[in-house]
Amino acid sequence: MTTIKLALQKKGRLSEGSMDLIRRCGIKVQNGIGKLKAEASNFPIEFLFLRDDDIPGYVQDGIADIGIVGANVMVEKDSHVEVVHHLGFSKCRLSIAVPKDQEYNGIQDLDGKSIATSYPVLLKKYLDEQGVTADIHEISGSVEIAPSIGLADAVCDLVSTGSTLFQNGLKEVEQIYKSEAVMVATPDLAEDKQAVLNQLLFRIKALQEAESKKYILLNAPEDAVERIKSVLPGMRSPSILPLAEPGWVSLHSVINENTFWENIEALKEAGAEGILVVPIEKMIL
Ligand SMILES: Nc1ncnc2c1ncn2[C@@H]1O[C@H](COP(=O)(O)OP(=O)(O)OP(=O)(O)O)[C@@H](O)[C@H]1O
Ligand SMILES: O=P(O)(O)OC[C@H]1O[C@H](OP(=O)(O)OP(=O)(O)O)[C@H](O)[C@@H]1O
Ligand SMILES: [Mg+2]
């Protein structure tokens, strides 16, 4: 069978989420420390461990067939790759921040000022849209230090918890791009490789589908079943099994976790007892 090449970040904010996803897809890989290429033992996939900035280019050129990268990097590199799936981890935002004591009334305040960033393309696009001209100072890391050492008036960098901004005396004033990890593919992927990618996406979607769902089991008197079904609208057609005790049944169904917490009191009042809510690992619809 054709092997597909997947480019992953070697070490950083994407690597744990990427490897965890691969593992949960049931794909077994052993990558010794420092080994930059590895093959799975039970799926036709080869892994290339790279710097994240290089991933869009490698996928665009077909050196890797697919890759996992932050959407922010994909857009910044203006690469011609196809986003085939949103993966929901490494969520962050690209934001402009200024020293916390500085008065800020809007983006116009940055006209004529200097902004340090590792994302000059995304920043320039935003400033152009806002009609603001600023001096973009590109640096490759530790961006948040820039104002305190007199390198720039403001910064534009990734924010997740906001702790790095806080620790460096900065406040977030504009959010310019929302990002998460995405799976990208070479445009016009060969048919046999597309088939392998489809198998991989099938597994990923089954995992994602299961994430917000739970399996619920509860006991109830037979005459309470209709009431219980109306309390949990997500419960489309539950399985109903007789219990050893006459007149009692066990209801099994799949629910949205949020629905459950919103309705727990009403569910008990409707007559449900011995409620168990258990995680679902994979879900194929
Ligand atoms: N604090 C964060 N929380 C969540 N996701 C983040 C965070 N910081 C960055 N990311 C996402 O993870 C990607 C990789 O971030 P990381 O900081 O590991 O990159 P890097 O230092 O450029 O790594 P490399 O050495 O591979 O070039 C970013 O492009 C972004 O999509
Ligand atoms: O809002 P926070 O949760 O504090 O996260 C934001 C920080 O995370 C990223 O850097 P990272 O820690 O990955 O280090 P790096 O500069 O080496 O990429 C990003 O560049 C910010 O500096
Ligand atoms: Mg990088």
What is the 3D shape? Answer: flat
Mean pLDDT across all amino acids: 94
Looking across the biggest beta sheet, what order are the strands in? 2-3-1-4-11-5
- How many whole angstroms does the radius of gyration measure? 25 Å
- By CATH reckoning, the class of the largest domain would read Alpha Beta
CATH architecture of the largest domain: 3-Layer(aba) Sandwich
Q: Order of SSEs, N→C?
A: EHEEHEHEEEHEEHEEHEHEEHE
In the CATH hierarchy, what is the superfamily of the largest domain?
Periplasmic binding protein-like II
Percent of residues in β-strands: 25-35%
Unreliable sequence segments: none
Give a quick account of the main beta sheet: strands, pairing sense, barrel closure. Answer: 6 strands, mixed
Give the total of beta strands: 15
CATH topology of the largest domain: D-Maltodextrin-Binding Protein, domain 2
Instruction: Work out the helicity level.
Output: 25-40%
Distance between the termini: 27 Å
The number of helical segments is: 8
GO molecular function, one term: glycosyltransferase activity
Protein name: ATP phosphoribosyltransferase
Organism: Algivirga pacifica
Catalytic activity: 1-(5-phospho-beta-D-ribosyl)-ATP + diphosphate = 5-phospho-alpha-D-ribose 1-diphosphate + ATP
